[in-house]
Design goal:
The protein is an all-alpha fold. It is built from 17 helices and no strands. It holds the Pfam family HDOD.
Length: 283
């Protein structure tokens, strides 16, 4: 049996965020920093610069005309959105060399992208939360499973098999067999990497959003995205998703199958383009 912190400690030796991300985070926390300071920090890393410009000029943001410099990107998007975009590309890059033998990595990242897009579409459709922040939180919401399959592959695989056999929730079997679940491990990684306030709370409470405190809306949007993703193969996917969503979440956000269908449609429509953006070789 393992704690979330023990599993994260195993992976931290293999994956870490780049120095440029930490510089950007420090600038965001510094009230005296400027847009130019942030642009200079991003521009110091050629790989991240290329990914940010590719994203800014993609369907994900839809700005008119071509954005050719990081300075213009920061002016258009704002410092917070540039930070979040750098964070998402940095996490994907940090785990690029981590390929657990028992995981289908292409499917994992495609599901992560879909979850991020569904969380983003949910924020827009339901008129709550920051859509761009929700994309990043949704993208990272299942990162706990990547940690678990790397650090405790046999136990994690056994938990998934047991959940499938018993038709039980995965997190319950993970608690019983591994000692913790994917949401707890994801929150522990967010804390270990000192991600912005709210990431750990929202990721950690995605199963039971009411536990997220002031970040309950973010946790609820991830929770909704999870159920939309999980029911993609059902005959009536939106009715199936609604049945899985926490009743308190469904009631507070006035969810119905039409809203879920709208969110699902947006995520499905954007998925291929965004996968090509973050994973050019897989698009």
């Amino acid at each position: 049996m393992s704690t979330p912190q023990e599993l994260v400690a195993c992976v931290e030796r293999l994956a870490s965020l780049p120095a440029v991300y930490h510089r950007i985070r420090a600038l965001l926390d510094d009230p005296d920093s400027s847009v130019q300071d942030l642009a200079n920090a991003v521009s110091s890393d050629a790989g991240i610069t290329a990914r940010v410009l590719r994203a800014v000029n993609s369907v994900l943001y839809g700005f008119p005309g071509k954005v050719e410099t990081i300075g213009r990107a920061v002016n258009l998007m704002g410092m917070q959105q540039v930070h979040d975009l750098v964070l998402s590309t940095s996490v994907i890059g940090a785990f690029s060399g981590v390929r657990p033998a028992r995981m289908h990595m292409i499917k994992f990242w495609k599901d992560c992208v879909f979850r991020g897009l569904a969380a983003r579409a949910g924020a827009k459709t339901l008129g709550t939360g920051d859509p761009e922040r929700m994309f990043v939180e949704g993208l990272l919401a299942d990162i706990g499973h990547l940690v678990m399959f790397q650090a405790a592959p046999e136990a994690t695989d056994a938990a998934l098999a047991a959940a499938h056999k018993a038709q039980a929730p995965v997190h319950e079997m993970e608690q019983e067999i591994v000692g913790c679940d994917y949401a707890e491990v994801g929150a522990a990684l967010a804390n270990a990497w000192h991600l912005p306030n709210g990431f750990a709370a929202a990721i950690g409470a995605q199963i039971r959003p009411a536990l997220a405190g002031p970040h309950v809306t973010e946790a609820a949007l991830i929770h909704i995205a999870n159920q939309i993703l999980a029911t993609g193969g059902e005959a009536e996917p939106d009715a199936a998703a609604l049945a899985l969503i926490d009743p308190m979440v469904a009631a507070s956000l006035e969810l119905d199958t039409d809203k879920l269908a709208h969110i699902r449609g947006i995520a499905e429509g954007e998925q291929d383009s965004v996968i090509a953006l973050f994973f050019p070789a897989q698009g």
